[in-house]
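Researcher: We're teaching a course module on how sequence relates to structure. For the next exercise, students receive a sequence and then see the predicted structure as tokens, so they can try to spot secondary structure elements on their own. Here is the exercise chain.
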Amino acid sequence: MVVLKTRQAVPALNVETLNGAWSLSDQTPANFTMLVFYRGLHCPLCAKYLKELDKLAGDFAAAGVSVLALSSDDKARTEQALADWELKNINLGYGVTKEQAQAWGLHRSAGRGLTSIGIEETAEFSEPGLFLVRPDNTLYWAQISTMPFARPLFREVLGAVNFVVEKDYPARGELV
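Model: And here is the predicted structure for the students to work with:
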């Protein structure tokens, strides 16, 4: 399994989004690009999580953070998530491949049928991950999970971003 290290270059990331083609190397945020990998349409916790992010999208933009939420779902499932979850302010990427997920160190799971909300899990999908990437495409912070619950709260992430920028706080966890 790949373990990304802070202060090191992150893997290339090129995906389709509901707003068109997206490439990490083309991003020019003032401070960070935040990548939020979510499990997919089948995940009720993802719905709640991305609704929180959607409400704070303007605050992240004001803090110099560009945001992309993405999953291995196909375009149709991603469009359904956007509509069902009533997301208005964030861009959703789709079609994250097994190879891309592995390059980012994400854990993968096999589908197990219908979820508690009656939506079929896909055959394979990635578990959650959140990454803050500096404009030079080096990793600042990563949070990777094997489970859908206990994710970083976006309001706390936003507070941390503001602290980090104000104090010029260095990326930690860089030692091998």
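Model: If you want an answer key for the exercise: The longest strand covers residues 32-37. The CA atoms of residues 6 and 172 lie 7 Å apart.
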